[in-house]
Structure formats: C-alpha cells, structure tokens
Amino acid sequence: MAGVTPRAPRVGGLLWSLLALSIISAPPAARADAARPAVAVHPAVAHKAAIASAYPLASEAGQEILKAGGNAFDAAVAVAAALAVVEPTSSGLGGGGFFLLHRQSDGLDTMVDAREKAPGAASRDMYLDKAGNEIPNSSTSGPLSSAIPGEPAAFEYLARKYGKLPLKQSLQPAIRLAREGFPLYQRMQYAIKAKRDILARSPDAAKVFLTADGNVPEVGTVIKQPELANTLEAIAAQGARGFYEGRVAQNLVAGVRAGGGIWTLEDLKNYRIVERKPLVGEYHGVRIVTAPPPSSGGIAVLDSLNILAGFDFHDVDSATHKHLIIEAMRRAYRDRAIFLGDPDFIKMPLQQLMSVDYAAGQRSSIRADKAMPSDLLPGIESEPKGMNTTHFSVLDAAGNRAAVTITVNLFFGNGYMPAGTGVLLNNEMDDFSTKPGRPNVFGLIGNTANSIAPNKRSLSSMSPTFVETRNGLMIIGSPGGSTIISQVLLGVLNYVDGMNAADIVKYPHYHHQYLPDEVNYEQGALTGDEISKLESMGHKLRLSNRQWGNMQVITWDFANGKVEAASDPRGEGEGLVY
Ligand code: DON
Known about the structure:
With 578 residues, this protein is an alpha+beta fold.
C-alpha cells in the first residue's frame, strides 16, 4: 500500500463486498447522527460577529440588521433578500435553497429546507419526446423548467420561528437596494453578456438588465428593480402569502403559463418549507453538521470523510494524498447517483451510507498506487456529455450561526421574468434525473430515486456545513454545481489540517464525480510532479478552463475569541468582522 496504512479494520476486503454492501439491506449504522463527538468547548471570551457573502452590499445588509438588534437568523433573511437584488444571477425569490442553522442558547442544529418543488402537473417523462428521447434544453429553458420557489417561504419561517426582528424590518435593506438601485459590477455584467439573448426574450427581464436598445449595460450603470421592490414589499407586509397568494401569485402563474409552463395557483399556495434534522458525522474527533437530503452534499462529504478517516496520511507524498481524496470522491459521488433523492418520496439507506463499516468496505477497494476506473464500480451508465448559486455564512455575537446556500440553478435561472413581478424564475427541474443515466447540466447522473414526480424536490449538491473542533469552528459552503461537494470536502480537510479562512477559500480545487471518469482541476491545484504521478496511476486529468466556486467561510477560534470571515477571491464578495 505504498506507505498508506488503512487505520480501521477492513470490512469485506474486496470490491465485491462493497457492492454487496450496497445491495444488502442496511446494516446497523456504526455512526450517524447519534454521535456527538468533539463536544465543542465554547469560549468564555467575547467574540465578534461576522458575515461572508458573495457581494459587499449583501454582507452590509446583514450587518445593518445585526446592528439593529437582529440575530444571525434575521441577518440570514436580510443577506438572502439582498442577494436576490444584487446578485440575481445566483439566487432569488424565484429560487430556493438550504438554511443550516445553529442556535447557541440550546445547541439546536436544524435545517430549513426551502428547496423548490416540482409543480403538481409535473411528470416523470415531461422532458422526453414520444420516442423517449430528451427534448434538447427543455429542462433548462423557459418556464417549463421552473420548479415552485421556496425562498420567500423560508424568509417568513426564519423570521417567525428563529428571528428577533419583524420580517418587515429584515427585508428593508433589500427593498431599498431594489428601489434605489446599485451599480452594475463586472461579474454580473459577465453573466448578462452570457445570457443576453435569453434575457432579451423576456420583456420584464430585458427592462431591468439590458439597455433600451437591448445591449449589455456598462459597469457602473445603476440597476433599479421597482417591480422586485414591490414584490419584496408584499412579502414584508403579508409574509409568505404576499408571494404565494394574491397579486404576485397571479402574475407569476399567468407569466409562467404564457411562457409554456405548468404552474397553478394551488402549487404556489401549497408550497411549504420543511424543517429537517441535519446530518452529523465525525472526522478525527471533529464534528461535522451538514445538509441532509434533498441535498446530496452532506451524505457525500461524510461518506468521503469516513473513507479518508481510515488512512494514515503521515509520510504519504502529496500525489498519493490527493489520489486517495480523489478515490473517496469517486465513491461518494457514485452513491449520490444511485441512492439519493427527496426524502419525502423515497427511502434511502442513509445510515448505511454514513456508516464507518460501509466506508471501510469502500476504502478496501482503493489501491494507493492506482486509479480505479469508475466502470469497475458498477452503478449507473452515463450517456457521454458535457453555471449559478450563492452561499453565505453568518455568526452573531451570541454564537448563533447560519450557513445558507441558495440558488436559481443557472445564471439568472432560466432568465424568464413573469410580467409585473420582478422575479426571475429558476430552472431547478434540471436537477432531477429527467431520464435515468442522462447527465444534467453539471454532468451529474441520477437514478429513479431522483426521477420527476409532482411536488417532489430535485436532488441538490448544495452543502452548507458547520465544522466543530475542540478549539473552534468553521461555517462553510460554496456554489459550483456538482463541484460544491468536493469543494466543501477539501475545505473541511484543510480546516482540520489547520488552514486559516483566507487560505481555505482561495485553495485551488480538484474534483472527481464518478462519471465522467476524470479528475478536473483548477490551475495550481496540482504540481507538475503530482500530475505525472497521478497520470501514472491511471487518472485522466483535465485542467479546467474556468475557476469554480465562490466559497464564503467564517472561522471562530474559541481560545482567543478571534473570528475570521473570508470571501473567495475568485468572486467579488466581502467578509465582514465587527
Ligand atoms: O442544487 C444544485 O445542486 C444546483 N442547482 C446548484 C447550481 C449551482 O451551484 C450553479 N453554480 N455555480
């Protein structure tokens, strides 16, 4: 094993036992959320509050609400609402996501699942033609690709159940930004350029994001969104009903149906968030609290960590170290493809997938000197084939925290804005497995577990996570489609290795998602020597022509009360500590 010692006893020992494990009904979990390792020793010293988000105006909106006496959960509403205005490429009222929360007074960890739901008239084969072939782009373009949004419901729920301030107050910064406008910045201009033709087809979207003659506005142009301000005001005045019922709902449904979509007023009225118990795992005594399904991220991160926990990385060269992490990713993404979907619709062997015995079986199929081709891990056949979301982290002075990853899926969702709403629609339906084995936009494949059904949530990679050691904690998450999971995994490993927040967010990423069977890496992620060695082990390496992610991390050192907030330099975000 070329210097790599598996630390846990081998279970099964062979690939075939691994495969058998995945078929045999779940063995008792060796660990799952019952474990509460590394009981955090919280500091007696005062510490600061912090916010890290993808755009300064959004971080500042959260700061304004904390200063006004709000807690981390009020700030989460303010930041998410402000991002809907100033980063509409990535999230918004027309989308959804996951709000992972920690309440300091009683230690409660919970997740508000505001993932979008398929409309009631959705059906398994809705994106296939009569011959069973995929209708090109049907799950990404136009309102037929839109699921019922969850973000506005989360705002009311968070404010009512966990916040200290009225929803109306927490939404004020966003309303102001929508009404008074903000200067267009480069990253958003880039997204407008990329989506110009699509935005041009939706008159309300064109009015906001394009010039009068249909061109891309200059950086610095003030972007005002009066209709969005009106919709936010309706939510401020009436709570979620201001969005899911009445004038806004009627305009949304009329717009969606005029564009070929299938939403009904009932779909909107019946949308509910679900509060779910986060997954809890352990890695070398460190406690990881992370997103449960319908996110696949938590399971995949914990499974990878369980696999890696059994290796001793001392005296292992860096290429072998990365190889083992890549092999863990390969196996965890395979499980994602086979087993995971909406927990309200399907049964999943979660205890098994998170158990150390299962991970030991997976580990035993890893050779230290050789890549394992993904097709030797039979799972799902993929048809060969070929971005946006936002994350923010909040810590308040009382120790409450929020890790929030929200999305409209691709840049500006599907770019369609129903008239009179100011709301851009998501294209989250593409996160379903529209046909078994068909890769989605991120090349992810899925199984019947993630097939379309009315009112079902599509499987997500969004992975908001808390990491707690005896000495401190980290709040972490990132956008990046399928790479979210591997980014968060690397972030956790780096934090456990002692890296600081600024270095964690800028760390160059490498990624393997089972299929396609290749390692994608950012410039700088692998040295020349590592590339040669990984290739000699049989890995197919592909240098990515773009950067991934926009990670937002807060760390808190219990011993000295030091808090750091770091925003990924790949983006234009801001970490604030005060
Ligand atoms: O939920 C998901 O996994 C995807 N809709 C996330 C999309 C995404 O991160 C795009 N970003 N870069």
